[in-house]
Write the structure tokens for this entry.
Amino acid sequence: MAGVPSSPATAAGLHVLRLCSVFEPLPADPPPSPADPPPSPTGPAVTAMDAGPDPEPDDGPAVLRGSLPPGTARFDPIGGMQNHTACLTRALDGQGCAQTVLTSRLAGPRGTARLGRAALVHRTGVPVPVLRQLWALAALPRALRRGRPVDVVHAHQGEDVATLVLGRLAAHRHRCPLVVTVHCSVRHTLRGGSLRARLLRLVGGELERRTLRRADAVVVLTARTAAELARDGVPAERISVIPSGFDPELFAAAGRAGARAIAGRPRIGYVGRLAAQKRADLLVEAFGRMTEDADLLVVGDGPDRPRVEAAAAATGDAAARITLAGFVEHSAVPGVLALLDVLVLPSAYEEMGSVLVEAMAAGLPVVASDVGGIPEVVADGRTGLLVPPGDAGALAAALDRITGDAGLRARLAAGARARAAEYGWPRLAERVAEVYARVLGAEDAVPGPAEPAAA
């Protein structure tokens, strides 16, 4: 095995095989140089909204689609797990860690791309929004391929539990430790009564329990999940709570550009996947019930887009103040957040909600569902407001309260910015490196320079 870092922990000299069902999409254009200005959020959507206080209403909501990068998946283009895996990979690359990332292609092309100095990202599988578990079968030959020795297999478990099988096989093949990050516990967090959800909880939940008991280390995003897994028999000393975070450099580049309010109206925003779990349609419904005057910007795309569009059309006169901006790349998200006064996450279930951390880093108060691990991120009354999940009336009341009280917004925003300091990715990556050091054993420390991962 390659050397283990000394304190403060780094992953220098290690080769990590990272397995994740989703990763950030390929960029539409080459990354900007440091001298370039920060990307413009959503382009025409923001321009249209800034054009004047009263855009002329039409017979439906103002739907302005952001441009999708070529080959990007429309059904799942933005999500916390995608951003988490990419940000962690970049941060560890900065520490000198070589990484091979195996992930699904979503609707993009198969192939290999370099990320940073020493990371290679291999995208594989089939370009469909269903049966995504099959990506693991396509990735299996590369996961088991002998090449440069693998020091740690790090599997990222979301709802695609086939990653756990892939991780166990890869760790056995390379005779190295297995680390699992649980982004969504199908046994404890997943909700819903669909056949898919029931099967995931039944079959996937048991696979999750067995795999996590055998893993050398388990990383969870919240203390709530840590307690649940410990009750499942995962040794507590193997569990580390390391949340998702934000990239300080990305947010520093975005600055605080952009006017917050339009003609005195606060702007409410949602950023994320349009999926049943996230309940963006509930936010649109609640917006239509508000008594305070505000605007709503929904940024993201996904399978629930028709439902969100229908909800917007059903709001009547309020539809003229709703913009569905579509997909934007993650690099543009800080600029989008700089245009908002409040960020809303009305999820039906959520392991953590990493967009909440990004919103707080942007100095935004948040309104979110009191569910899952969200209360560990959002301190009710100090950094934001919590509401019961699925309650459009309670959500509307919270939005009226926060948009109608500029002093409350300012106080919550100050608390949010202070809280966000705990979630910078450079420090979180050091904590992940500490996990690697622990599973490898500090007595083997022989640090060495990182080399590009073998293709």
Notes: The chain has two domains: 15-28+77-245+424-444, 44-68+248-422. The chain is about 35% helix and 15% strand. Residues 1-7, 29-78, 256-263, 442-455 have pLDDT under 50 and may be disordered. The longest strand covers residues 98-104.
